[in-house]
Structure formats: structure tokens, C-alpha cells
Backbone:
């Protein structure tokens, strides 16, 4: 039995801890804060609860696999997953168009697009999603299901998996250039409204469509194909269930312990040094999230490499939490997206979950209003951000002026405080695609005996990807460096 110390109690770190513990190892998790979950946080006030991280769940198969392999109770017995009632999302476009999209029904989605945006746009939408499916099938295994190590074939990371579409230049049809996602979507969809709708979900993954390869269209394909899910109690309920599963597997959690360095002996990790000088001995060290690198003593940058691309190009978010009196009106979409003047402008998303567990009584409701913001402003919001959030809330939440009990604005500074992420950065998933692609950090750390999980590690940020980091690192530790996936 190996001694393993996991630094951080984020979602990826706990995923690794549970899998390593069930393999028979002794696992200790050290966390500088006083709770688990990392970016999957919760704000509780006056009987109201709000997710402060992601508000929806994609690819629940990642978590079904984890719970299946780490205990007797499956995911569905630990977390009540529901599909929000149709329409899953309503898009409000600047020209006044409203597009309501269902979940898990390709035919119904195409009908809704046709009715709102026209038949030609619906045909183009179908073709683009078909090519996005090809990108997903090509990239799924190397970009999500296999570890990133020195043995990894670099080709999938260098090339955009989105298939080139011939288009006419002069007298001849030639393959389209390898453009960024926004340029590709604009050329292939034609209608700027469809471009805004299809690319808007990328922001939820921490991806700017203007700074991403076309292959990232696989992300909206995943949403439309595998559905959007909501854990009753919020996504924090998933973090709570994962924490409980770790405790069942006898994982030892130590909160309020800040790791400042990885101890080294004979060129290999030998433990973790805490801020009080204590060293926890270990045969393997798993670094979660923005953990210190070997010898960095509290720094977040790895001295042996540049920051991974998914961190250097990350965005953050501003969030307005609304506590409301009165029930959520029947037929209210779970998610409403209020679009800006162009698809290049980050949209505002309003979540109004139908979940009484979030409210003090059945005569209340909540709304969470978010917009992506750049990292690097010292925690301050760009000019006009608060006004955009308030305007979207006024437009979407019925009778807001009469129903509002209180509101609370969260900025990147709160995200940095809660997660340790500089500037409140929320890294996106790894994406293949040359200049516009981005790679997360390799799963093995720079020092033998160390491994990385969480949003900075391959395959990057987002709930399903973070969960996969735990599976990949557990596989490498248990099976060895030649292991290539499916642990």
C-alpha cells in the first residue's frame, strides 16, 4: 500500500482520492480552506443556497463511472440528477428573436431553429453539428480519455479536428482555411443569430469562441447530444456526494492545512511540506488545482515549464445572486441566455432552477446571473459589467422589482479568495488546434512521484474534464506510466 498525499480538495482531487483509496492505497487530502469542492462552491444566506461555480452538469457518465467503481451505491442513489423541463434554454437575441431549445431531441431542436431562424439556417445548423460530431469522435479519446505524458502522440494537439469544408475561391473550390471557431461558425452558418446561439455555450466551459479552434464546436455538440443535467441541491450536491464517497473509502481529509512545497529525496517526491513546517511523508504526491510546484513554496507557476495554455488564456466570471419572494412562475426556462450586440461579446446567463431545496420555503425562489469577464483586472470588474447583469436580471426575472429580497455581487476577487486561482481564472478544457488550440499541463508532474489533477491538468477545466483528471492520474499511479486509459 502506497502513501499518497493529495493537495487540494477540489472536484478533480477528490475524484483521484476516491479511485486511489479503492485501489488499496492510504490517501490523505490536505486543503488550505475549511471545506471541500474547490470551484464547485456554495453561498448560503438567510436560508437561500446558490451555486458559486458551474450551475449545470454535462457528461454525467464521467461521474457514473466513478461512483460505480468506488463503492456499492451508484451515482443516482447519491445525487438526484434531473433534466430541466423543456425548454432547457431560451436565447434572447438583440433583434428581439427568442429561440427556445429543448433537450435531448435533435429533431425538436432543428424544428425550433427552423421556426425562429428559418429553413436555410436550420440546414446549415444541422451540417455544422454533423461536422462537430466528427470532431468529437476524433478528439474524444486523446483529448479527454487518455493521459497526457511524455509518451503521448502530439499530433492530436497540433491539429484542429474539425473537418475542413471546401468553399469557392475564384473559379475553384478549395478547403477552407483553419480559422478560429467564431470565424468558422460565421462562414458556415451565415446567420449571426445562429452563430451567437451555437457559440454561446462555449463561454460556460471557459472558452472564448474568438480564441478557440473550430474543433471546440464539439462542446455544443456534447451538450445537444448528451443533454444538460441538474443535480437537485445544485452542483454542490455532486461535490458533497463525492466527499462522502471519499470518507466511505477512508480518505483522510485535513482542512486548514496549506501546502507550500513538495519535499524531495533522491530526485523524487517524498512528501508535502505544510506552512507550519510539518512534512507529510508520501510515496506519491497528487497536486490539485493551483497547488504549489516542487520547490516553489507557495507559488503557482511550475519552474520547469510555462503555464499551461488553458490557464494563460482563461477567463473569469462576475455573478449576481438574487434572493426572491414568490414562487418561480410555471414555464420559466431553467436557463436564459441574453446575447450582446455580436457573438464576440460574452452573453449574460440567467439560471432559475426549479429546486425548492435552495429556498427557505416554497414561497421563494433564486436566480443566478453570470457573465464572463477577462482575467487580469486585479479583481475589479470591467466598466459596465454590473449594469449588464442588472439589465439582464430585470429583463428575464418576472416582476423582479417587487420580488427581490436582496442581491449579492460576486467578482473574480471572490473566486480567487475561495479557490486560490490568480485573478479568479477559470481554465477551460484542453483543445487541439495549432495556434488557437490549448493544452493543459501533463498529468505526470515535473518531479518523479508527482502528478497533477484539476482544471490545470489534462484534459483541463469543466466538471467532466476535471473528473477525468482524477481517473487518469489514478490509472497512471496504479497501472504505471505506460497505461493509456479506461481505468
Residues:
Amino acid at each position: 500500500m502506497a502513501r499518497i498525499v493529495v493537495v487540494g480538495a477540489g472536484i478533480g482531487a477528490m475524484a483521484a482520492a476516491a479511485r486511489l483509496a479503492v485501489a488499496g492505497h492510504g490517501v490523505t487530502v490536505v486543503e488550505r480552506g475549511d471545506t471541500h469542492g474547490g470551484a464547485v462552491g456554495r453561498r448560503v444566506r438567510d436560508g437561500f443556497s446558490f451555486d458559486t461555480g458551474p450551475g449545470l452538469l454535462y457528461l454525467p457518465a464521467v461521474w457514473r463511472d466513478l461512483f460505480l467503481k468506488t463503492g456499492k451505491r451508484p451515482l443516482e442513489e447519491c445525487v438526484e440528477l434531473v433534466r430541466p423541463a423543456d425548454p432547457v434554454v431560451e436565447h434572447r437575441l438583440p433583434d428581439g428573436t427568442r429561440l427556445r431549445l429543448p433537450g435531448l431531441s435533435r429533431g425538436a431542436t432543428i424544428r425550433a431553429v427552423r421556426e425562429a431562424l428559418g429553413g436555410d439556417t436550420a440546414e446549415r445548423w444541422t451540417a455544422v453539428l454533423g461536422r462537430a460530431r466528427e470532431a468529437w469522435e476524433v478528439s474524444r479519446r486523446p483529448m479527454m480519455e487518455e493521459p497526457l505524458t511524455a509518451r503521448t502522440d502530439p499530433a492530436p494537439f497540433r491539429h484542429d479536428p474539425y473537418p475542413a469544408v471546401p468553399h469557392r475561391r475564384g473559379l475553384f473550390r478549395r478547403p477552407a482555411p483553419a480559422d478560429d471557431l467564431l470565424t468558422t461558425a460565421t462562414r458556415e452558418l451565415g446567420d449571426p443569430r445562429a452563430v451567437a446561439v451555437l457559440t454561446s455555450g462555449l463561454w460556460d466551459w471557459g472558452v472564448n469562441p474568438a480564441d478557440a479552434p473550430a474543433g471546440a464546436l464539439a462542446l455544443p455538440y456534447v451538450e445537444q447530444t448528451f443533454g444538460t443535467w441538474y443535480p437537485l441541491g445544485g452542483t454542490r450536491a455532486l461535490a458533497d456526494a463525492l466527499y462522502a464517497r471519499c470518507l466511505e473509502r477512508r480518505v483522510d481529509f485535513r482542512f486548514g492545512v496549506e501546502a507550500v512545497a513538495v519535499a524531495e529525496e533522491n530526485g523524487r517526491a517524498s512528501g508535502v511540506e505544510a506552512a507550519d513546517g510539518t512534512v507529510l511523508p508520501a510515496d506519491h504526491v497528487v497536486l490539485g488545482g493551483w497547488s504549489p510546484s516542487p520547490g516553489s513554496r507557495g507559488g503557482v507557476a511550475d519552474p520547469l515549464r510555462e503555464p499551461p495554455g488553458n490557464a494563460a488564456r482563461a477567463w473569469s466570471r462576475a455573478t449576481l445572486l438574487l434572493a426572491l419572494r414568490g414562487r418561480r412562475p410555471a414555464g420559466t426556462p431553467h436557463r436564459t441566455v441574453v446575447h450582446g450586440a455580436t457573438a464576440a461579446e460574452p452573453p449574460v446567463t440567467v439560471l432559475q432552477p426549479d429546486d425548492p431545496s435552495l429556498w427557505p420555503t416554497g414561497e421563494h425562489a433564486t436566480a443566478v446571473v453570470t457573465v464572463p469577464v477577462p482575467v487580469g483586472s486585479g479583481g475589479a470588474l470591467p466598466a459596465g459589467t454590473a449594469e449588464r447583469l442588472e439589465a439582464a436580471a430585470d429583463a428575464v426575472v418576472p416582476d423582479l422589482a417587487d420580488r427581490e429580497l436582496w442581491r449579492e455581487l460576486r467578482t473574480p476577487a471572490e473566486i480567487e479568495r475561495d479557490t486560490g486561482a490568480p485573478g479568479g481564472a477559470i481554465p477551460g478544457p484542453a483543445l487541439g488546434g495549432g495556434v488557437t488550440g490549448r493544452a493543459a499541463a501533463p498529468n505526470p508532474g515535473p518531479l518523479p512521484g508527482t502528478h497533477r489533477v484539476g482544471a490545470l491538468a489534462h484534459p483541463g477545466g469543466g466538471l467532466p474534464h476535471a473528473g477525468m483528471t482524477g481517473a487518469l492520474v489514478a490509472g497512471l499511479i496504479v497501472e504505471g506510466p505506460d497505461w493509456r486509459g479506461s481505468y
Remarks:
- The CA atoms of residues 180 and 213 lie 5 Å apart.
- The first strand starts at residue 3 and ends at 7.
- Residues 298-306 have pLDDT under 50 and may be disordered.
- The radius of gyration is 22 Å.
